[in-house]
Design brief:
Rossmann fold, 4 helices, 16% strand
């Protein structure tokens, strides 16, 4: 058997969000399903966070709905815009980045900036 004799309970525990109490997190792809919910979770855990997205493929209704739910900072920034990205990193004092950025379609996700 592949996992015979392996003690899975001996693994190191996953760091809890409280370890991030002084962090300033940047969440890319914040208009997407995963990024949006991750941003909400950070807010629930009282962790300072800002989201960015270029909102490609998002409808106006979806943007308004997600903005109203998070009531948090979601900035319109394209990851390919190095100047804006550097400005966000500096202005928001970002210490951690969580990347959920992707195009909705696979064919669009593999194109280079």
């Amino acid at each position: 058997m592949l996992f015979e004799g392996v003690n899975f309970t001996a693994r190191k525990p996953i760091p809890r969000p409280s370890k991030l109490e002084h962090a300033h997190v940047l969440v890319t792809g914040a208009a997407g399903f995963i990024g949006h919910h991750f941003l909400l979770r950070l807010k629930k855990e009282r962790i300072s966070a800002v989201g960015i997205d270029h909102f490609g493929g998002s409808t106006e209704a979806l943007k308004r709905h997600r903005a109203s739910l998070s009531n948090d900072k979601v900035l319109h920034v394209d990851l390919c815009d190095a100047i804006k990205l550097k400005q966000v990193l500096s202005d928001q004092r970002i210490t951690h980045v969580v990347n959920f950025a992707a195009q909705a379609g696979v064919s669009q996700s593999v194109l280079l900036c």
